[in-house]
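Support reply, case 0932

Customer input (verbatim):
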Amino acid sequence: MNLRKISFTKETILADAGRPTAEAITRAVAIAVLQNPFAGRYVEDLSPLFAQGAELGEMAMKDLVALLPKPATSYGKAAIVGVNGEIEHGPAVLHPRLGKPMRDALGGGEAIISSNVKIGGPGTTIDVPLAHKDNIWLFDYLDTLTVSLADAPRPDEIVAIMAICDAGRPHPRVGKGRVT
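Our regenerated output:
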């Protein structure tokens, strides 16, 4: 894997809508910028990107988890593929093998890890969906975290994002579970 850089960001939410939160909510994000070995050409076998996803998870998740003061309750992932790549390159990094190291670092996770992928250039923002790590139907944990890097992705890069949070939304009033 040819990694250009990795950035870690932590945010703590203490108030929202003019009201203090019941407790501090901490979100942490790892953003990795890697060279896309398939930029500019169609390749049938994307498995080298599967391995890069696993490697990124192994490398970043321990440091990411250490940024939270409490255990993570929700997670999400995303990718921005530079314009010389194709949309399929993002899922190739995110889906086949990144989930295992994410779950391992959190001590488990029964629910699907929500994700988002798009193509863009430097400074492109992406909304990383967050959902409860064990129960996708816990609506109070459905949230979004918007991230970007000013200098990435370059045309031949992929930005891979892993996000975790130690609580749900600041003032949830939608419901504790599945509504039909």
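We compared this against your earlier run and they match. Two observations from our side: The chain has a mean pLDDT of 96. The first helix runs from residue 47 to 66. Please reopen the case if you see a mismatch on your end.
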